[in-house]
Design a protein that fits this description.
- With about 325 residues, this protein is α/β, with parallel strands linked by helices.
- It is built from eleven helices and 14 strands.
- Helix content is about 30%, strand content about 30%.
- Helix 7 links the parallel strand 8 (about 180-185) and strand 9.
């Protein structure tokens, strides 16, 4: 089915009025892009933002827009015509400025919405012995190379981001045969699955997002790793003491944590608690400007950096017990 994406430019103060107007015309679902709202989000003092994508930063100066979708059929046309007919009169009697109320229309195909994101993902050769390949792509692997099939969906971790790639390169350089691994913040499950494909005996994984856990299970099945060697749970180990104890019921040979700097620092005591005396810690998701800050925090908790790598503004490190 084809759809029409309709955008209405307004002002921050006019969002509620325009949304009410659309609801009165039978439009119950909208998307709001508001520069003021995004600016307040970035200034939230309870969150430390290491990095904000340039495309997202453009939202701080973008006009306020309300978007909604109508089917490309007679009912959709009727709704659109009613909106276009009545919209110019919405400002009448209003004391606040509703903005330009300019309306624009773009046609979309439902199939495009469902699969458009896939065009950004292509096979990634991590090393001669490991490649990450999207589920929908054809790939002829050379002899001796393991192929990790991925469908990241809405979860982080496709192998294309530098933080994930750095972790994969570190794992590729380790001897994983027969070892136990803990993946803190598993996302799509890519690091957990890579560890198993490269010989790990077992992997325990955790993520705060239930959707990520679901996708990680699906990707594990896609790679034949749903055979009892991988266990995944959902929760916040920094707030749930019972979960932290459950994960810590055993110690691990290797811990990987591809998260963000502040969470890595907060988890430092857990890393020290969970890792075996001769174990290896791999951390990533750190902007290069904060690499020293994070490694210093980990050193306080008994770790020593054995290798640090950087790529496109991101840093990852391998650490051992000091």
């Amino acid at each position: 089915m084809n759809w029409a994406e309709i955008s209405i430019q307004t002002a921050t103060e006019g969002i509620e009025i325009v949304c009410g107007f659309l609801m009165a015309h039978g439009v119950s679902s909208v998307m709001i892009e508001d520069a003021a709202d995004f600016e307040n989000f970035l200034q939230d003092t309870t969150i430390h933002w290491d990095y904000v994508d340039e495309d997202l930063m453009k939202l701080t100066t973008a006009p306020t827009v309300i978007k909604f979708y109508l089917p490309d059929n007679p009912q959709g046309y009727e709704t659109l015509n009613a909106v276009k007919r009545d919209l110019p009169h919405l400002q009448e009697g209003q004391e606040i400025d509703l903005g330009s109320l300019e309306i624009s229309l773009t046609y979309k195909e439902e199939e495009d919405w469902e699969t458009a994101w896939q065009k950004y993902y292509h096979p990634i050769v991590v090393s001669p012995r490991l490649a990450v390949v999207p589920e929908w792509e054809k790939y002829d692997a050379p002899a001796g190379q393991t192929v990790l099939r991925m469908n990241p969906g809405m979860a982080f971790g496709s192998g294309s981001h530098d933080t994930t790639r750095l972790c994969l390169q570190f794992l590729d350089g380790l001897s994983l045969s027969g070892l136990s691994v803990l993946d803190m913040g598993c996302g799509s499950g890519i690091l957990s699955i890579a560890a198993l494909l490269m010989g790990a005996k077992s992997v325990s994984a955790v993520d705060i997002d239930q959707l990520a856990v679901k996708i990680a299970h699906e990707n594990a099945a896609l790679n034949g790793c749903d055979d009892g060697r991988l266990s995944i749970c959902c929760g916040n180990v920094l707030e749930d003491a019972a979960l932290a104890d459950e994960i810590g019921a055993e110690s691990y040979d290797i811990i990987v944590a591809n998260i963000v700097a502040d969470v890595i620092k907060a988890m430092a005591p857990l890393f020290a608690r969970y890792l075996k005396a001769d174990g290896t810690l791999v951390v990533s998701g750190i902007i290069t400007e904060r690499a020293e800050e994070v490694t210093s925090c980990l050193e306080v908790h008994g770790f020593a950096v054995s290798e640090l790598r950087e790529g496109n503004g991101w840093a990852a490190a391998v650490l051992k017990r000091a």
